[in-house]
Amino acid sequence: MTYNKEYFGKHGFTRHPSLVPSWKIINVGELDEIVEEMVKRGLARIEEGKIHVDLLKLGYNKVGGSGRVTKPLVVYALKATENAVRKIEEAGGSFIGVKGE
Topology of domain 25-97, per CATH? Predict the structure, then answer.
């Protein structure tokens, strides 16, 4: 027997922690400071005057918008904030969203 079909309980639903994604974020300012060292170590490459950085290979999956970008960067990651994408594009670079992990 059903009394109130609109009542779902007072506690709600929670997802299992293994299903909730955890974001490892690097800000564009930090990335701009360390990108030349990454090129020297072979973790990033220069093509056509732009520095290509694959953040998934470095363990990051999201780009934050804090800081300044002074170099043209092509950044590969799962997500980026609107502010980060705007700053990367203003410096002459681009953000490329990669699907999957």
Answer: Ribosomal Protein L15; Chain: K; domain 2 (3.100.10)
Alpha-carbon distance 46 to 44, whole Å?
7
- Number of Cβ atoms within 10 Å of the Cβ of 5: 6
Asked if residues 79 and 25 have their Cβ atoms less than 8 Å apart, the reply is: no
pLDDT tens-place string over residues 41-83: 999 999 999 999 999 999 999 999 999 999 999 999 999 999 9
